[in-house]
């Protein structure tokens, strides 16, 4: 019998239909239903991206399956089974842990589909999974971050290089590369949270590998909570580089996101591109990682490192 390893693959989650948006939004708001205006705004965004089709769930399903296949191909002496655990939709993180136990898994590893650690993001996933695993007596280890894994940097660098070609004969140094990630409340800086530093480390690594010197970092998709969030926001950044530096070409590489979902398909492809058009900026975005073999290899390496370290 092969040694069996359960892998809890965690991510944010998404509604699967327009009818599920309200319940999903209520869960994000910790049980407080959104106002009619808030619900309409989110529903309109989902309808705008691809006519109400919900790509994140399907993308996550494919990533989980691809990771399982990659782990078993890379390490045929072991038997890996991957389980989903979502933060704000079913199957929830606790459901994934419970299913592993029901299936007889005795050893587990958890990993989040996000390369950069914050106590407010990945830390929250791990806390929930740890609590359920402890309740059920399941030993589980966690990958906390993988923001400088060579294969991840290679995958992102290839996307930057390929997307630069869309600007034709424009010299590379005339194209402003903006690396972005999901904003978080500013208070994480006071906490000494590694999230901003890890994002800058990833950005520098990609810039170094691609020979890009004209770059900066921006934030996106900040929540509306009444407290300050990390900035500058990408929309403000576009206005600044256009009006103050007369930048006409921008490449956006959303290094904090590994899949096509709302923050990419709406916040960048619709909202940011609209702002860019109004400013006379040619804006291009690097394709998402999704099931890129280099990304799957990154995840496989990180999971196996914890298994092998036993």
UniProtKB/TrEMBL annotation:
GO terms for molecular function: ferrochelatase activity; metal ion binding. It is found in: Cytoplasm. PROSITE patterns: FERROCHELATASE (PS00534). Pathway: Porphyrin-containing compound metabolism; protoheme biosynthesis. The keyword Metal-binding applies. Keywords: Cytoplasm, Heme biosynthesis, Iron, Lyase, Metal-binding, Porphyrin biosynthesis. Its EC number is 4.99.1.9. One of its GO terms (biological process) is heme biosynthetic process. Fe-coproporphyrin III binds at residues 12, 29, 45-46, 125. It catalyses: Fe-coproporphyrin III + 2 H(+) = coproporphyrin III + Fe(2+). PANTHER family: FERROCHELATASE, FERROCHELATASE, MITOCHONDRIAL. Belongs to the ferrochelatase family. NCBIfam families: hemH. This is Coproporphyrin III ferrochelatase. It comes from Paenibacillus xerothermodurans.
């Amino acid at each position: 019998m092969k040694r069996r390893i359960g892998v809890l693959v965690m991510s944010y989650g998404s509604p699967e239909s327009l009818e599920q948006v309200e319940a999903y939004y209520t869960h994000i708001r910790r049980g407080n239903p959104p106002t009619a205006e808030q619900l309409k705004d989110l529903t309109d965004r989902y309808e705008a991206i691809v006519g109400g089709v919900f790509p994140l769930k399907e993308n996550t399903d494919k990533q989980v399956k691809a990771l399982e296949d990659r782990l078993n191909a890379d390490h045929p002496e072991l038997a890996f089974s991957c389980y989903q655990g979502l933060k704000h939709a079913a199957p929830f993180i606790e459901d994934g842990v419970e299913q592993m136990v029901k299936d007889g898994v005795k050893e587990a590893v958890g990993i989040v589909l996000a390369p950069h650690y914050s106590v407010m993001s990945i830390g929250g996933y791990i806390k929930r999974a740890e609590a359920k695993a402890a309740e059920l007596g399941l030993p589980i280890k966690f990958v906390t971050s993988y923001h400088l894994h060579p294969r991840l940097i290679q995958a992102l660098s290839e996307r930057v290089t390929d997307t630069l070609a869309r600007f034709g004969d424009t010299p590379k140094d005339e194209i402003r590369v903006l690396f972005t990630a999901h904003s978080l409340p500013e208070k994480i800086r006071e906490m000494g949270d590694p999230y901003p530093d890890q994002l800058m480390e990833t950005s520098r690594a990609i810039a170094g590998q691609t020979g890009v010197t004209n770059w900066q970092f921006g934030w996106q998709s900040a929540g509306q909570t009444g407290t300050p969030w990390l900035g500058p926001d990408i929309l403000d950044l576009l206005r600044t580089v256009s009006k103050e530096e007369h930048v006409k070409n921008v490449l956006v590489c959303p290094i904090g996101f590994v899949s096509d979902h709302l923050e990419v398909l709406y916040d960048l492809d619709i909202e940011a591109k609209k702002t860019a058009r109004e400013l006379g900026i040619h804006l291009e975005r690097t394709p998402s990682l999704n099931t890129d073999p280099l990304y799957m290899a990154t995840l496989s390496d990180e999971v196996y490192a914890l298994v092998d370290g036993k």
